[in-house]
Amino acid sequence: MSHDSAEERFDTLLASMHEQLGVAVYDGLMGGGGPPELHDPDRALGRLLAGVHRQTGAAVGQRLARRRKKKLAGEQPAAPEGCGQGGGTMLMRRPAAVRLKYREQALDMARTYWPQDLVQILRDAVDFVQDLVVHLEEDSLPTGSCQRLTQVGASIGQVLALPESPQFPVALAGYDYLETVESDLSPCALRLMSEVRNAQQLLESELVPHLLAAEVSWLGALEVAQDLADDLDLAHREATALSAAVKAVEEVSTDFRGADLRSVDLEGVDLEGIRWDAATVWPAEWEKRIWKASLAAESDRGVLIVGTEPRDSTVPADL
Amino acid sequence: MEDAASAELRVSEPLETALPSLRGRDLAEELHHAEYPGLVRFLLLHGASWNEAQDAAQDAFTQMCQPGTSISYPKAWLRKVAWRSWLRQQVRPEDPCSQVPAESVVHWQTPAHAAELGVEERRVVELLLKLPAKQRAALAWTLDGFTTQESAEAMGITPEAARQNLARARATLKAELSLEGFSGTAGEEER
């Protein structure tokens, strides 16, 4: 390794350490309710005194009690959050407390990037153009093809309504969870829009004029239609990739099996649809309420899903 | 050789330009949410524990709110004040119980034990925390994007001394990390 590449490797390692530490600090702070409230000096003394009094009293007692409890129970260290859930994404590695805190915004963002089934729209467009190619090979044009092509153009044009610029302002510290969510979705959306623009351009500026000409050049129209089918196929692949990214965001915002959520303030957090299991640890004051509001998942044994309203019936004991 | 030029790292422009002096309280409100995590990280790299770093960061913002405070370089100011606050904690009689919050999302006190970091990155932190205090400080300022001129001013040393500390820190880390291309002779000279 040359001196320059060693320097480069070293600087990369330092920068990576700096960034990862920044993410860990950000998640640690936000997962615990964010930075402490800003205090005026006048109020700081009162805060300090109250803090010392509270911590020396309650915290010591709690800590000792917890230790005793752990000793008695022979508690094993909890498995890392997200283990065995097949997530594998960087988002799944963010603490469950952070994922839960920003759940609603993350799901809103996923909906913004996936307002409807874009894969199906593009699949229909590909099927139609491939069908058209078959007809053009036989020097024929089904009735209403031009009108149908215009509809296809309008239909795939819906993709272009996806966000082109970030929906959330970039945090100065640069470790914002929602920023990470968006960085997973945005590139896929931009690539999809670029492919759709190419296809739309080809459709509106070349294929439709070819087919509307007084004397249709079958060979020319066939070539353009084949190019269009290829472009639409690429767009379909990008839509599938975006769909997978959206699903991953939904998954990390929904799957809280085995997560330790004791430190999260659940007040005002929309819990509907969250999947959890017996290993999930809820804040003590919420546990009963959440058990009441949950139903057993039909497909996954041992998994519960939080519903809208507390129910009177109980969850089966074998969970 | 690990000279002054390479010790400048990637930053060639000063991180902060002088603002017209702003009221501390206004600045604190504007910067609190965005700068707080960076400030905690800065202190962790100096060797502070998670709880110490949070205390010192909060103290810096509290001091920023003091009536009559006006600041032109808020990011450097915050780091300098937080660092001093952390140093003061070191000489204060310690009450370990008052430092332990009831519940915390992080399960570590020093980033050298942070499972969130990759293996290599954790090793870098571990080695960095073993460096002498001034070298750690020089590296922490530089990693936060400050020039050696700025960090020297903040640390109250000459730019030459800041560069030397940074160069030594980098040389030691590279040697410890066994990165090829490291010039042993250069390391000798630095020492």
Detailed description of the structure:
Chain A is built from nine helices and three strands. Chain A is mainly alpha-helical. The C terminus of chain A is likely disordered. Helix content of chain A is 61%, strand content 3%. Chain A starts with a helix and ends in a 13-residue tail after the last strand. The radius of gyration of chain A is 27 Å and the shape is elongated. Chain A has three domains: 35 residues; 157 residues, Four Helix Bundle (Hemerythrin (Met), subunit A); 51 residues, no CATH class. A three-stranded antiparallel sheet of chain A has the order 1-3-2. Chain B is mainly α and 191 residues long. A two-stranded antiparallel ribbon of chain B has the order 1-2. In chain B, helix 6 crosses helix 8 and helix 7 packs across helix 8. The N terminus and C terminus of chain B are likely disordered. Chains A and B meet through helix 1 and helix 2 of A and helix 2, helix 3, helix 5 and helix 8 of B.
Structural class label of chain B: mainly alpha
Order of helices and strands of chain B: HEHHEHHHHHH
Radius of gyration of chain B: 18 Å
CATH topology-level name of the largest domain in chain B: Arc Repressor Mutant, subunit A
List strands and helices in order, with pairings.
The complex is a heterodimer of chains A (319) and B (191).
Chain A: H1 3-31, H2 41-73, H3 96-101, H4 103-113, H5 118-137, H6 145-157, H7 177-212, H8 218-252, E1 275-277, H9 284-293, E2 294-296, E3 303-306
Antiparallel strand pairs in A: 1-3, 2-3
Helix pairs in contact in A: 4-7, 4-8, 5-6, 5-8, 6-7, 7-8
Chain B: H1 4-7, E1 22-23, H2 24-46, H3 50-64, E2 70-71, H4 74-91, H5 119-128, H6 133-143, H7 148-155, H8 159-176, H9 184-190
Antiparallel strand pairs in B: 1-2
Summarize the structure.
Chain A has 319 residues and is mainly alpha-helical.
List its traits.
heterodimer; A: 319 residues; mainly alpha; Four Helix Bundle (Hemerythrin (Met), subunit A); three-stranded antiparallel β-sheet; 9 helices; elongated; B: 191 residues; Arc Repressor Mutant, subunit A; 2 domains; two-stranded antiparallel sheet; 60% helix; disordered N terminus; disordered C terminus
